[in-house]
Amino acid sequence: MSHRISEVSDFLFQLDALKSVNRRTYINGGERLENSAEHSWHLAMACWAFAELLADSYDVQKLIKLALLHDLGEIGAGDTFLYSSDRDKAHIKERESVKELAAHPGNPLSSIVELWEEQEAGNSKEAKLLKVIDRLLPFIHNMKSEGRAWKDHSIHKQQVLTMHQFIENESPEIYGWFLVNLEHAVEQGWLMAC
Description:
Strand order of the largest sheet: 1-2
Largest sheet: 2 strands, antiparallel
Distance between the termini: 61 Å
Oligomer: single chain
Order of helices and strands: HEEHHHHHHHHHH
Number of strands: 2
Shape: globular
């Protein structure tokens, strides 16, 4: 038993590396950059909250698991900025990293790869909600920091619209809220109009 506990401890230490992956989103209205572990926790809480708010028949336990592991691949691949030209290739290195973590001798979680692939494909009801909320959280952070990350990277309205367009089909109510706040961000000068 002592050997198994040591292996699991080492596995958990490997997961701890997610705390060292910085994102481009500022927390607390601009205090500092968020790391991917913080984002994953925040996403899990947000998914749970939205599952309750939307009062649909989500498998909340599965949804939380998807949220907690959705960025595990960033341990080996790093974070890819939403507006990066390399975004469409990020999943390749992330998948390799997830498989490497799953193969760790101390990993007691047999479904890591399967669940990561599910959230990556985005086909299940839970994975669809996860993708909406995952896209929504950085937007909310930008609204609270007066567009700090947008300004840092010279992001304009059309880029944000393009990357959030899929939300219209998944959740028209959330998309309506997003559009109102997007226009507010442009009016305030937090986001470039063109």
